[in-house]
């Protein structure tokens, strides 16, 4: 059974704060690590798909890093804004199982 | 380009009934996967179809089934509904499979009473 763990479960920050979350996944049979943002009443939106150890990806104020050898990925948000409030999901894809295994997410709330 | 479309968006069924949910993928996408989201649980993988063939199946009982048509549209069916089947069912499509970015629909909210 593949286990993908995310921490913290929830986070409450002030506008302008920078924050980061962690996703831990099995380090064997790695193929890809996905990050999604899921706003209430909307569909999950893809942020990044990362495949290479040491990979760093950036989209605006959001960036992510990947360490496949130790099995973790970090998602960073710089200067949080209220519109960043959402649940952030990571998902691990192993080529042998050909399916995405999701973590339970980190719920971020950004207040003024 | 139209996104992933799921119908119906909301439905209420009675225990013991069956339900069929539909998913139209993004044009040109051949892979469709289905997920279940229940309170407190992460997205649980149900199955993935590619070019009308089931490529993988999650840990769900046989009451959960699906299919994919030649136009890549997919349906999932749950028979003999139980209260615990109440959930958000999400469909996602991608050009070739879940190793690459997948695009989600808005989901179908199923309530079993």
Walk me through this protein's architecture.
- The complex is a heterodimer of chains A (112) and B (113).
- Chain A is an all-beta fold and 112 residues long.
- Helix content of chain A is 0%, strand content 55%.
- Chain A contains no helices and 11 strands.
- In chain A, strand 9 and strand 10 form a beta hairpin.
- Chain A is globular, with a radius of gyration of 14 Å.
- Chain B is mainly β and 113 residues long.
- In chain B, strands 2, 4, 5, 6, 9, 10 and 11 form a 7-stranded mixed β-sheet that branches. In chain B, strands 1-3-8-7 form a 4-stranded antiparallel β-sheet, with no helix packed on it.
- Chain B is globular, with a radius of gyration of 13 Å.
- Classes of the chains: A mainly beta (112), B mainly beta (113).
- At the A-B interface, strand 4, strand 5, strand 9 and strand 10 of A face strand 5 and strand 10 of B.
Give a concise summary:
The complex is a heterodimer of chains A (112) and B (113). Helices cover 0% and strands 55% of the residues of chain A. With 112 residues, chain A is mainly β.
Summary tags:
heterodimer, A: 112 residues, mainly beta, 6-stranded mixed sheet, 5-stranded antiparallel sheet, 0% helix, 55% strand, globular, B: 113 residues, 7-stranded mixed sheet, 4-stranded antiparallel sheet, 50% strand
Quote the average pLDDT of chain B: 94
Q: Give the total of beta strands of chain B.
A: 11
Strand content of chain B: over 45%
**Which sheet architecture does the biggest sheet of chain A show?**
6 strands, mixed
Helix content of chain B: under 10%
Radius of gyration of chain B: 13 Å
- Residue stretches of chain B low in confidence (pLDDT < 50, at least 5 long) are none
Order of helices and strands of chain B: EEEEEEEEEEE
Name the assembly state.
Answer: heterodimer
Distance between the termini of chain A: 41 Å
C-alpha geometry of chain A: globular
The end-to-end span of chain B amounts to 37 Å
Structural class of chain A: mainly beta
Largest sheet of chain B: 7 strands, mixed
Overall SS class of chain B: mainly beta
Helix count from the secondary structure assignment of chain A:
0
Low-confidence stretches of chain A: none
Integer average pLDDT of chain A: 93
């Amino acid at each position: 059974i593949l286990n993908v763990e995310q921490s913290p479960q929830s986070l409450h920050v002030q506008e302008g704060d920078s924050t980061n979350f962690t996703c831990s996944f099995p380090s064997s049979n790695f193929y890809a690590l996905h990050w999604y943002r899921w706003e209430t009443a909307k569909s999950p939106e893809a942020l990044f798909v990362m495949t290479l150890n040491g990979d760093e990806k950036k989209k605006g104020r959001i960036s992510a890093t990947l360490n496949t050898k130790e099995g973790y990925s970090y998602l960073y948000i710089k200067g949080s804004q209220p519109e960043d409030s959402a649940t952030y999901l990571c998902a691990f894809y192993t080529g042998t199982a050909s399916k995405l295994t999701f973590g339970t997410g980190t719920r971020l709330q950004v207040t003024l | 380009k139209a996104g992933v479309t799921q119908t119906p968006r909301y439905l209420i069924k009675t225990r013991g009934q069956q339900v069929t949910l539909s998913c139209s993928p993004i044009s040109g996408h051949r892979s469709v996967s289905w997920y279940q989201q229940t309170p407190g649980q992460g997205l649980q993988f149900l199955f993935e179809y590619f070019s009308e063939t089931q490529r993988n199946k999650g840990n769900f009982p046989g009451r959960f089934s699906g299919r994919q048509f030649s136009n890549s549209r997919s349906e999932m069916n749950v028979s003999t509904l139980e209260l615990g089947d109440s959930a958000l069912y999400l469909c996602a499509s991608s050009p070739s499979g879940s190793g690459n970015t997948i695009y989600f629909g808005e989901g179908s909210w199923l309530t079993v009473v």
